[in-house]
Amino acid sequence: MDTLLSVQEIHTYYGDSYVLQGMSVELNAGEALGILGRNGMGKTTLVNSIMGFVPPRGGKIIFKDKEITKTSSYEISDIGIGLCPQGRRIFPTLSVRENLIVAEQKKGAARWNTDAIYQLFPRLGERKSQQAGSLSGGEQQMLAVGRALMTNPDCLILDEPSEGLAPLIIQDLGNAIRSLKEEGLSILLVEQNAPFAIKTVDRVNVIEKGKVVLDTSPEELWNNEQVKKQYLGIG
Asked: Which of 130, 131, 189, 217 is the most buried (most CB within 10 A)?
């Protein structure tokens, strides 16, 4: 498969804190890649580096054969990377529909508009006039995903989307993500919830102390008790 997003040996700092220590990740077109690891290992820093919030001091980030290492966040969104951030970050006083419209980008034959989002997440259609701050946590997460899709991205980054959600809502969210993957959308799923991620992605990268320590299939990861215990704290 063609490489859509290539993170090449990046080194990212927060002040003097050295977080990503030569991290490399490759996402192929049409693939769902899971980024797994315990808290503090650099998962969200990887997202922040890709999106231009915390540019790396070394290495390169290539998207659609163009280097974006020092590109501004709004330009990264314009060229086709959509982000559903950790913590949702919706606009609580705006309606569901307004939250979606504010992010809308029409690019060519745009796949995503409000009607398409309501089809993917019927609950949002039922509550389109409701203030976003009054939604349940699960509905707010659906809205955050929908808002990211309204940018009509070629690559969708989901940062800890299952965080704080009830099991049934996590199941619905997983079904939606798998539906997006089946449509051919490239997805980078950053998760601490390994059982959720392995049911959703095609391939898994496990990170430890700012580096990828394992690139494998979901099945091989789940069957490796030593790796699960050492790097994910499972078992």
From this structure: 189
